[in-house]
């Protein structure tokens, strides 16, 4: 059984297909057709809806022995930990076409039909009309819900204005053009100020304390086991069930798994959702590393790494869209074993350690030993990723991440480079160059690393490194890029990092 709120209505379901998507439930089971079906893969944003969930600044989330380079005041609120913090509401946009219905347990679902109340439009809808932000209207509900999620963020308007492009990065429009839509976003945020003064009616200005209490009650009720959608509540339960049923499919965010249903038309009869297992959601900043559970979302990862590993921020912002990052997880991106995954090069460069679990047994392996061949990992049947330990680069290290793709946002890599060059007395020590998109698995360029070790990171070192990359990397040609292009880009990215490093030294 799952329990969630659709608007203010309590929905309890015991008999539903494990692979039923939120989009299909809305359109086919509830006849709510405002949410549109476009690409079926999370690219166009026409299916955008908003989920409301509870987050707390205490529980498993904490900063421990925070390094001096990361002041406690700079650590995100959701990571610092506050023993007296009360749960608060988190509004997040998601792609309903690649979100499984069962994952809504304990949350509230809002679709575009939710915003109008008693023939009164929400300020976001009003702004879209006044700024002429819609022509054919097919994409409009998705834009409205993305803007609504931005509208509901607990941040000052000045900060939200800087995030308009990010909030709309997962929505495509073929006919209206983005200028009036962006104008509507600015108008909506002005309406938000007026709403706080009682000058404009916010149709979704719900009693937050009442909603928090209802969601707490939903989460506290025991889940009844039944059907093909399994939701373990503890690590013991998860490990025992998956060891006994290794053919079940693990679900964290579903942004990759759901494509098997929407694109390949497969049926997934048994799904094990790991999102309610506390150990899979752990987020800790230690003295010299991060400890993140496999079910930590990329939005949470972005928030944490923006402070602790700033060089990773730009790449993470180009990792899908807000809708994708709000659902996709660390474990899912690693476990899919895609050669163009964005996290593996970053984690290879940082020498990340994975904790794998099977039954009661755990083992720790470096990410460099995780990938065996194309789409194949070293995990055994019944084994899953529990957490990752991410060493923090020291302040004097050269560390950079660069992603090259056809589109700036919401696209997969043609080539991705993550480079980590620890420095000792001006010389590189233990260089790590990791690439995505140039082989059947994410790889390190070991010969190029040797060309950089024990010497200053300067132009001649780069020339020698480029020579090794030319011989060492043997990429293929495909729809995204030719082999020659990938080889040249890999070499040019090394030069780019050296130029950035030189500029930094001159400041």
The separation of the N and C termini measures 60 Å
Count the beta strands: 22
Relative strand content: 15-25%
| Overall geometric form | globular
Strand order of the largest sheet: 4-10-11-16-12-13
Helix/strand/pairing category: alpha+beta
**Tell me, what is the CATH class of one domain?**
Alpha Beta
What's the short version?
The chain has helices at 22-29, 77-80, 123-130, 140-151, 157-161, 164-168, 178-196, 208-220, 235-244, 258-262, 298-308, 313-317, 322-325, 330-335, 343-350, 446-452, 459-472, 483-506, and strands spanning 2-6, 9-13, 48-55, 61-63, 88-95, 108-110, 229-230, 249-251, 271-273, 283-285, 289-293, 353-358, 361-366, 371-373, 376-377, 384-391, 398-404, 415-421, 423-424, 427-428, 432-436, 443-444. It has 507 residues and is an alpha+beta fold.
General description of the model:
With 507 residues, the protein is of the alpha+beta class. The chain is 33% helix and 19% strand. The protein is built from 18 helices and 22 strands. The protein has helices spanning 22-29, 77-80, 123-130, 140-151, 157-161, 164-168, 178-196, 208-220, 235-244, 258-262, 298-308, 313-317, 322-325, 330-335, 343-350, 446-452, 459-472, 483-506; strands at residues 2-6, 9-13, 48-55, 61-63, 88-95, 108-110, 229-230, 249-251, 271-273, 283-285, 289-293, 353-358, 361-366, 371-373, 376-377, 384-391, 398-404, 415-421, 423-424, 427-428, 432-436, 443-444. It has a six-stranded mixed sheet. Strands 2-1-6-3-5 form a five-stranded mixed sheet. Strand 12 (353-358) and strand 13 (361-366) form a beta hairpin. Helix 3 crosses helix 7 (178-196) and helix 16 runs antiparallel to helix 17.
């Amino acid at each position: 059984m799952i329990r969630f709120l659709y608007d203010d209505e309590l929905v309890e379901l015991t008999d539903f297909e494990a692979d039923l998507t939120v989009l299909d439930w809305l359109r086919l089971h509830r006849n709510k057709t405002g949410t549109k079906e476009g690409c079926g893969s999370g690219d166009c944003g026409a299916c955008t809806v908003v989920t409301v969930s509870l987050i707390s600044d205490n529980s498993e989330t904490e900063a421990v022995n925070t390094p001096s380079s990361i002041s406690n005041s700079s650590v995100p609120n959701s990571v610092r930990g506050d023993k007296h913090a009360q749960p608060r509401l988190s509004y997040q946009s998601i792609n309903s076409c690649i979100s499984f219905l069962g994952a809504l347990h304990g949350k509230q679902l809002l679709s575009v039909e939710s915003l109008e109340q008693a023939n009164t439009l929400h300020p976001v809808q009003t702004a879209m009309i006044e700024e002429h932000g819609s022509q054919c209207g097919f994409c409009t509900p998705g834009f409205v819900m993305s803007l609504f999620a931005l509208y509901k963020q607990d941040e000052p308007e000045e900060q939200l204005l800087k995030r308009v492009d990010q909030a709309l990065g997962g929505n495509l429009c073929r006919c209206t053009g983005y200028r009036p839509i962006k104008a509507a976003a600015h108008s909506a945020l002005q309406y938000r100020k007026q709403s706080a003064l009682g000058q404009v009616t916010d149709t979704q200005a719900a009693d937050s304390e009442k909603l928090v209490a209802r969601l707490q009650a939903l989460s506290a009720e025991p889940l009844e086991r039944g059907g093909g959608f399994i939701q373990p509540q503890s690590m013991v339960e998860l490990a025992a069930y998956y060891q006994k049923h290794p053919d079940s499919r693990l679900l964290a965010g579903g942004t990759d798994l759901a494509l098997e249903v929407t694109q390949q038309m497969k049926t997934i009869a048994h799904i094990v959702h790991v999102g309610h297992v506390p150990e899979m959601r752990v987020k800790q900043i230690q003295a010299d590393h991060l400890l993140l559970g496999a079910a930590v979302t990329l939005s949470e990862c972005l928030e944490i790494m923006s402070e602790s590993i700033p060089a990773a921020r730009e790449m993470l912002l180009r990792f899908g869209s807000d809708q994708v990052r709000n659902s996709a997880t660390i474990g899912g991106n690693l476990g899919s074993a895609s050669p163009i995954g964005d996290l593996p090069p970053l984690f290879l460069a940082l020498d990340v350690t994975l904790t794998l679990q099977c039954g009661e047994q755990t083992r720790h392996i470096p990410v460099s030993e995780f990938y065996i061949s194309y789409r194949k990992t070293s995990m055994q049947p019944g084994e899953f990723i529990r957490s990752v330990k991410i060493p923090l680069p020291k302040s004097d290290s050269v560390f950079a991440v660069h992603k090259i793709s056809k589109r700036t946002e919401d696209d997969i890599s043609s080539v991705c480079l993550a480079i980590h060059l620890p420095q000792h007395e001006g010389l590189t020590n233990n260089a790590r160059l990791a690439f995505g998109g140039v082989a059947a698995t994410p790889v390190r360029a070991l010969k190029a690393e040797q060309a950089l070790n024990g010497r200053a990171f300067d132009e001649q070192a780069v020339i020698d490194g480029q020579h090794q990359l030319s011989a060492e990397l043997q990429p293929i040609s495909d729809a995204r890029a030719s082999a020659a292009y990938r080889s040249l880009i890999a070499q040019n990215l090394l030069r780019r990092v050296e130029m950035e490093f030189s500029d930094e030294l001159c400041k």
